[in-house]
Structure formats: C-alpha cells, structure tokens
C-alpha cells in the first residue's frame, strides 16, 4: 500500500519533472512504423554534457506512468537518479501477442517475434544511443507476456541489458529450467527483479515461485537478485507495488549514505573511511555511467565516522576530496580546521576557519559560523606576560636587594661598656 500511494502521489508531478514526447519510429525489422514514448529528464536541456541510464519499457502504453511516478518521487529525495525512458507501444490490435509470440514446442521466439527481438536490439537501442545522451547502463521491464519475452535477451552470450524488471512473467516452455542456469553462470554483472502475487493465475504463480527457488539455490556474486510475492495484490496492482522496489534495488548503491549503511558498513571500519567514500562513487560511475559530485550529506557521514573513531588524520584526505568536488566552497577548510581543533592545535585551526571564511558558504556551513569558531578558539591561546623594554631586548626581572648590617669590632657609641674595661 505504501508503494501504491507513493506512485499515485508522484503522478501529479510527472509533468514538472520530465519531458515526454511521442514519435513514430520507422522500423525495417517490423516493416512499418512503431509508436514510441520518450521521456527525458528535467535536467536534460540544462546540462548538455550529462548522460543518463536508459530504461526500455515493453508495454509502454501502461507501464510508462508507474515507472515515471516512482522515478520522479525517488529523484525528488535524491534516492534515484534521473534516467531516459523509451516506452514501446504494444497495446493496439493485439500487438503484444504478435510481438511476443512463441513456438509452442520450443518456447522460443518465432516469426514476427524474432523481428521484434531484432527491432529492440538492432534498431531501438542504437537509435536511442545515437540520438540521446545515454550511458551504457540499460534496463528492460515488462509485465506477464512481455516480462517473459525480455528474458530472451539473457539467452545471448553477452546480455544486451544490465538489469531486468520481470513483473509476473507468463513463462514459456522450459524457461524455469533454462533461466536459473543462465543466471547462475553469468560472468557479467546482472540485476534481476522478479515478482508475483496471490492474484496471479495459480499455475503461473507456482512456476514463478519454482524459478525463484532455483535461482536462490545457485549463488552467483555477479547476480544481484530480488524476489517478491505480494499477498494482497492482483495481477495488475502488483505492478504498482513492484516498480519502486525494483528501481531501489537496481540503484541502491547510487543512493545517499543511509543510517543503516552508516551503522553497519562505515562507522564499524577501523580505517579507510575516505577510501570507502571514493569507492562508492567509483562504483556509481562504473556501474551506471553516472558521474556526479559527492553529496554533501555523504561528506558529513564520513566526517562523523572519522570523529567518532577519533581517526582525525583522515580529515586531511577528506578535505582534499572536498576541494576537488567543491573547490570554491569552505568545506575543505572546515574539515582541516576541525582536524587541527580535535588534535589540540588551535592556532592552526583558527587559520583554516578564517581561510574558509573567505570562501563560498555550503550546506550548513556559513561565514558567521566560521568566524565564531575562530574567535572562540583564539580565547584559548596562552597569554604571554607583558615585558617593559625595547622589542627584542631581554630584561631581567627586578630583584629585591636585602642589605645586611656589617659586623664591626668597634662598639657603637651607645653600647654598654663592661666593668673589666672600665678598670
């Protein structure tokens, strides 16, 4: 129910976050025109050098809005990246049955479905990569008949897609035996999401659960796999429940550092906090082709872990990374100032607080705060005694002279004289 509400709420803001256009693509493989729905991210025109992952939607007529809703909601909270979507129209004149028709004996594409397979791999993908700024990371999604058909791209030695969203697939002959073996032996990094619901045809549901059991039995480090069975969903409402989970599974590493990630993976480290942060963003770039500055919140999470573990020297490396990502901001100076302050070197901490004061504010760091921190630390400096004299002249402190009465053999005039001397 939570996912359903998320998607419904996001529908109201779809037009604010994306551009959708319909084009008629002239296909040689299909020997005719095919309607496509193309959704570009809101930043596409504003950022002419940025590239985006690509999602290919089978059943684009009705899957486009649920996928857009989940993506826009997740992107609003910086949990999901912006992507380019191309939806394939298949809802007219029983087109999806023609596109995905299979041989009843072999369960493999046959006739027109081979042409449709080639249309996606040899025409649609090259067209999207040529005309739009896509990264090499590609996702395909489908529902029942089209979900099962999308699995045939895995049958190739090198899968065309990096991630599969398979919603209640209507499995053809022998797919529950072939697909688990493929996923168990793949040497490529693959994301695979599979779902079913109590509202599915019971025989179909049993076969989907069977394929899940087989996939779970074969552990492959190259496979990122997730299965969900929804108790209170129909064959159609399952779509609204599944899509957010599938997208969050695929793009999990691209999300900001969460409380769970911090407590289980970061603060428990004995060292290498900055390396962890670098590796996280290297994985994002290498996996999805997304090159983005490190989030301020992620800098703050690593800083907190460093301070909690009292490994203050790592703040130096964190400051270098901050200057690389936000060169005009005070972030790097703040982290150096914090390092020296924690190490008890207040004069140098003041120097960096004041250096940061002259740079751009960022997140919660302000000029007033940097100045206040510097002034507060100045009060801790040791006070030197005031010395009179010329500059550079050492003056011995004045000492009190105590004079003693000299000892004399001659008695004083008023001293008493003894009786012996009188005589």
Automatic annotation (TrEMBL):
Entry keywords, A to Z: Hydrolase
Lineage: Bacteria, Pseudomonadati, Bacteroidota, Flavobacteriia, Flavobacteriales
PROSITE patterns to which the protein is assigned, alphabetical: PROKAR_LIPOPROTEIN
Keyword ATP-binding carried by entry: no
Gene3D superfamilies (alphabetical): alpha/beta hydrolase, Tetratricopeptide repeat domain
Biased composition (Basic and acidic residues): 391-401
Claim: Hydrolase is one of the keywords in the record: yes
Region (Disordered): 385-423
GO MF annotation, one: hydrolase activity
Database matches in InterPro entries: AB_hydrolase_fold, Esterase-like, Mycobacterial_A85_antigen, TPR-like_helical_dom_sf
Protein name, as recorded: Alpha/beta superfamily hydrolase
